[in-house]
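Prompt: For my understanding, could you write out one protein's sequence and backbone structure tokens?
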Amino acid sequence: MLHARPERGCEATRRSQGAWARCMRTVAGASWCIPTFMDERALHCPEEQPLIGWRLFRVRSSPAGFVLSAPLIHNPDFERFPSRAIEAICYERGHPAPAPGCRCGLYAALDGTLDSLSGYLHDSAHDTDPPIYAEVACVGRVFIDARGVRAQRIEVLRLAMPGSLRPDPAVHQRAVAELGARYGVEVCGIDAVPGWLLANVMPQGPPPEDAAIDLDALLVRLGRTQQAP
């Protein structure tokens, strides 16, 4: 999901084995947490030197026309994104997002990280609204771990359709035109999606819990610098 351009203006802080809590909900609605650990790196990316990645949205219809929406939210009325720039919110713990040791933030995949976007489509196969890939610029607080990026803010740079947005060709063309106008970006075909992203095919989105990558080597390849904790 990344362009090869170096981005040396980002300040990185190593957070090794940062603890986070996975919250589980009971039938009654109560929650409990299992403490888990993940290796992550914290960055600060200014707007002039964003981290470029790829992510999924779903294209949903609304009274205002076609709009991007979170791809894994089962209620389509929750979490629509009507503008090109999107700010992260932590719904579970209420702190500024993203935060160390918490899974909050706006997700994106990088070349070398492990989340499978096609796998997330398998996870949400019940959702009939069409998916669409987006190249995004990640700015502000950014955390990188084996799964990918969690960002404070993303801006949509372009959209890429893996297939038709609606069965009716006229409605499909209207959806393409409305998305291009609303977000001010080019709406491309699947050829715009990088090969590494399409090649990462798994039966589910997240990798196995014990999967790991060399995050320091990834930061070097991205041209990022680190600061002492």
Notes: Residues 1-35 have pLDDT under 50 and may be disordered. Residues 169-183 form the longest helix (15 residues). The chain has one domain: 43-206+213-227. The first strand starts at residue 11 and ends at 25.
